[in-house]
């Protein structure tokens, strides 16, 4: 499948962004090949951008938004989840495994979860190719 | 407006598989408003197809365009060069737009990418529903402004069938309101229930599709 | 582009509740000009100031503009009234009713509501007191449902007053008195000292006889002269209409829905410049409602205190020449910051984002079918434009 050497994380700045900064303060860094795209809100997640991330060589895309009900703009994280589902359906028809696109709810207080999700995804989709 | 829906990707993929140079043309009017075939949908479809064929040799070349109204030749003129270059054109306009391209560019292979559904309106964000089938002789005034031809599953003109229950239509109770319930309620609201006593004679369907394809000629507009 | 826009320190307060009055008083103290408007009569509680204009019996029928430049249109005694303010505090309170169906009991000479008791106690002496003198009064809370905080609190006050002023014998029946509100535990202790008997029940049986009422519960039967039931509260009848005009949301419970988010202050509606105070958006007693009003005024002051507003770092911008007026963004924006308008200078009709009202969430941009909306100030990698 060519050289799909990166993971794109599309992340709401209010939750995932805060969690990342917490991790960075503790000295954690995003693994090589992880591209972090910070969104103003889950609601700004654009279906087209997800497809373009794959086009740009992403082996997987991880979408992170607030818990439903905690979104600063009411519906943002619910939109994000819906759009991920719609694109997963498209991916199935295109012939890309659906698990290459993941959605997770996150809170600013969950830096440890963030690190483990990113690392697990990294192991799953990038590590074998990199060896 | 005209409401449409993108065809399943797998169907589109099967249609375009054999081509190497594809032009996708959207329409930024009706089908854009109903999120089926505007500029954004063109970009989405193009991205999806490029991903689908990304490992193919030679790579599939995809050109993305959108026009103001694809049912008007003047708006499509800008497409001439791209159409000449492409092996096939995937139109995301309604069936009218597709056929306009066909008439205007008789040598082009034009494929529909959306299913044209109906004339309707958005009831709320993301929900569109049918309101008029274009019968050619509007009788809305007789039915409290609610079209029994379109909204009654059986196009009944003299009251409901026996399948009207709690305001829902027996054909699909979950999704369909009984048009006759709506008509009754509206007439009651207007104090015009006596209108229902009038017998509606059989409709002359010759003004509708059943009289063959229709055409309007406005004498003062043609020489 | 992010230049500060000067705004007037002028606020509209909607509603005649005690929290509305509290907000008005606090705003005046902070030097704001206040327009106090209600659909009902306004209380005459000595709040008079050259900076305060009061309008009673007004109906809001339209709201134009956005934060910093709201224009509220009212009907006032058959006249139209347009009021310009920078922010709006909604403090319309809630509505009381007697849930006869839920209780399965009718009001009678033996069954009163807390409000009826309250009214009676307000009457002149000796009438007021004699009605309850030496009587045994059964106050029944949480009967088939939970009693609102507001009415629990009022029932406390009534119990105390009945004991002290009327020498009544008060039995306070409850199922789950959540004493989580500040001061409640203290209040129950004081009431006990005054002689109020607290009875906790599981499944009580309530009997209304010819001349007496009785409640049977786990520990026995208590007979009394009067059964007092708290009323219930619900959103005011005009809440939904008001929400539609103000373009703010209602929660599932029918009250106004505030943004309840870490690091943002209470009472924030999803729409910039519109705030909810007190019982129109939460279950609380009168004193909590008033402290909520104070917090809301602090939030208003945080917004307007500088006399100028600045847009967020990231905001949406519509290219009017691309927009096809499909209204998707208008229907999508959770903050009611976009409208389809005529651009006077350009002679086009297109969507326009109010740059002060926009929260920069991007929901409009990601939904636009012709990609006419750009998130100004938002950095995105080059590949989102296509490879
Ligand atoms: S081709 Fe014409 S009728 Fe069809 S969607 Fe476009 S504008 Fe509407
Ligand atoms: S009566 Fe005919 S023209 Fe009128 S709404 Fe119904 S289908 Fe359309
Ligand atoms: S979504 Fe786009 S096209 Fe539709 S009204 Fe808004 S800006 Fe215009
Ligand atoms: S970014 Fe768009 S959707 Fe979000 S607040 Fe601004 S105008 Fe509304």
Could you say which structural class the secondary elements and strand pairing of chain B correspond to? alpha/beta
Could you describe the largest sheet of chain A, including whether it forms a barrel?
4 strands, parallel
What string, H for helix and E for strand, traces the elements of chain B in order?
EHEHHEHHEHEEEHEEH
Helix content of chain A: 40-55%
What would you say this structure looks like, in words?
Chain A is an alpha/beta fold and 131 residues long. Chain A has a single domain, classed as Rossmann fold. Chain A contains 5 helices and 4 strands. Chain A has helices spanning 13-25, 47-55, 76-94, 111-125, 127-130, and strands at residues 6-12, 34-39, 58-65, 101-105. Chain A has a 4-stranded parallel sheet, with helices on both faces. In chain A, helix 1 (13-25) packs across helix 4 (111-125). Chain A is globular. With 223 residues, chain B is α/β, with parallel strands linked by helices. Chain B has 2 domains: 2-118, Rossmann fold (3-Layer(aba) Sandwich), CATH 3.40.50; 133-211, no CATH class. Chain B is 28% helix and 21% strand. Chain B has helices at 9-16, 30-33, 39-52, 73-76, 80-85, 95-104, 148-151, 179-190, and strands at residues 2-6, 21-27, 61-67, 88-91, 110-112, 114-124, 127-132, 164-165, 168-169. Chain B has a 4-stranded parallel sheet with strand order 3-2-4-5, with helices on both faces. In chain B, strand 6 (114-124) and strand 7 (127-132) form a beta hairpin. By secondary structure, chain C is of the alpha/beta class. Chain C folds into 3 domains: 5-93 and 236-309, FAD/NAD(P)-binding domain (3-Layer(bba) Sandwich); 96-233, 3-Layer(bba) Sandwich (FAD/NAD(P)-binding domain), CATH 3.50.50; 315-385, Alpha-Beta Plaits, CATH 3.30.70.20. Chain C contains 10 helices and 24 strands. In chain C, strands 4-3-2-8-19 form a 5-stranded parallel sheet, with helices on one face. In chain C, strands 10-17-11-12-13 form a 5-stranded parallel sheet. In chain C, a hairpin with a 5-residue loop joins strand 5 (58-64) and strand 6. In chain C, helix 1 runs parallel beside helix 8. The relative contact order of chain C is 0.14. The chains are: A alpha/beta (131), B alpha/beta (223), C alpha/beta (387). Chains in contact: A-B, A-C, B-C. The interface between A and C is medium-sized, with 26 and 27 residues. The site of one iron/sulfur cluster has 14 residues of chain C, from helix 9.
């Amino acid at each position: 499948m060519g050289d799909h050497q990166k993971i794109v994380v599309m992340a709401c700045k209010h939750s995932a962004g805060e969690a990342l900064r917490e991790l960075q303060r503790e000295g954690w860094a995003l693994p090589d090949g992880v591209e972090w795209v910070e969104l103003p809100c889950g609601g700004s997640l654009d279906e087209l951008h997800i497809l373009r991330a794959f086009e740009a060589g992403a082996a997987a895309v991880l979408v992170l938004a607030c818990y439903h009900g905690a979104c600063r703009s009411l519906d943002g994280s619910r939109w994000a989840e819906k759009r991920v589902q719609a694109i997963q359906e498209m991916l199935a028809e295109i012939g890309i495994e659906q698990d290459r696109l993941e959605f997770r709810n996150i809170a600013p207080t969950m830096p440890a979860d963030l690190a483990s999700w990113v690392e697990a995804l990294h192991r799953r989709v990038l590590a074998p190719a990199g060896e | 407006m005209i409401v449409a829906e993108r065809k399943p990707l797998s169907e589109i993929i099967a249609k375009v598989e054999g081509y190497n140079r594809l032009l996708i043309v959207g329409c930024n009017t009706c089908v854009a408003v109903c999120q089926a075939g505007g500029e954004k949908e063109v970009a989405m479809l193009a991205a999806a197809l490029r991903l689908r064929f990304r490992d193919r040799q030679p790579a599939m070349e995809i050109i993305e365009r959108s026009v103001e109204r694809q049912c008007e030749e003047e708006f499509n003129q800008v497409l001439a060069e791209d159409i000449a270059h492409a092996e096939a054109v995937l139109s995301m306009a309604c069936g009218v737009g597709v056929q306009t391209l066909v008439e205007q560019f008789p040598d082009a292979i034009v494929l529909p990418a959306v299913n044209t559904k109906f004339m309707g309106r958005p009831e709320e964000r993301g929900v569109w529903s049918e309101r008029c089938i274009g019968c050619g002789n509007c009788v809305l005034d007789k039915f409290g402004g609610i079209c029994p031809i379109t909204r009654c599953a059986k196009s009944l003109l003299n009251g409901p069938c026996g399948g009207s229950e709690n305001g829902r239509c027996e054909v699909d109770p979950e999704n369909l309101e009984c048009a006759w319930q709506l008509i009754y309620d509206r007439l009651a609201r207007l104090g015009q229930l006596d209108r229902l006593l009038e017998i509606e004679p059989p409709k002359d369907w010759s003004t509708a599709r059943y009289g063959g394809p229709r055409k309007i000629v406005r004498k003062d507009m043609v020489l | 582009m992010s230049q500060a826009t000067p705004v007037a320190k002028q606020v509209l307060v909607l509603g005649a509740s005690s929290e509305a009055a509290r907000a008005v008083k606090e705003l005046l103290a902070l030097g704001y000009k206040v327009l106090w408007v209600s659909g009902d009569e306004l209380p005459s509680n000595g709040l008079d100031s050259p900076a305060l204009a009061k309008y009673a019996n007004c109906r809001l029928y339209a709201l134009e503009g956005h934060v910093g430049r709201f224009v509220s249109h009212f009907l006032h005694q058959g006249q139209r009234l347009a009021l310009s303010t920078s922010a709006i505090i909604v403090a319309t309170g809630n509505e009381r009713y007697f849930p006869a169906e839920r209780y399965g009991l009718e009001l009678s000479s033996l069954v009163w509501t807390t409000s009826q008791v309250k009214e009676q106690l307000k009457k002149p002496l000796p009438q007021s007191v004699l009605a309850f003198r030496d009587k045994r009064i059964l106050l029944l809370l949480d009967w088939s449902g939970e009693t609102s905080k507001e009415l629990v609190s009022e029932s406390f006050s009534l119990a105390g007053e009945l004991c002290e002023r009327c020498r009544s014998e008060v039995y306070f029946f409850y199922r789950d008195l959540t004493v989580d509100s500040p001061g409640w535990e203290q209040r129950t202790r004081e009431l006990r000292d005054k002689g109020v008997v607290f009875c906790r029940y599981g499944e009580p049986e309530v009997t209304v006889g010819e001349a007496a009422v009785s409640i049977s519960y786990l520990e026995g039967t208590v007979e009394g002269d009067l059964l007092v039931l708290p009323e219930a509260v619900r959103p005011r009848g005009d809440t939904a209409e008001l929400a539609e005009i103000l373009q703010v949301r209602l929660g599932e419970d029918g009250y106004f829905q505030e943004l309840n988010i870490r690091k943002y202050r209470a009472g924030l509606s999803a729409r910039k410049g519109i705030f909810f105070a007190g019982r129109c958006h939460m279950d609380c007693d009168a004193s909590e409602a008033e402290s909520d009003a104070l917090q809301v005024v602090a939030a208003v002051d945080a917004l307007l205190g500088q006399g100028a507003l600045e847009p967020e770092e990231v905001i949406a911008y519509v290219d009017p020449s691309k927009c096809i007026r499909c209204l998707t963004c208008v229907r999508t924006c959770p903050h009611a910051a976009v409208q389809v308008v005529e651009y006077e200078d350009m002679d086009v009709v297109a969507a326009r984002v109010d740059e002060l009202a926009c929260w920069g969430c991007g929901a409009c941009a990601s939904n636009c079918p012709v990609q006419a909306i750009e998130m100004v100030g938002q950095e995105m990698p080059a590949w989102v434009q296509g490879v």
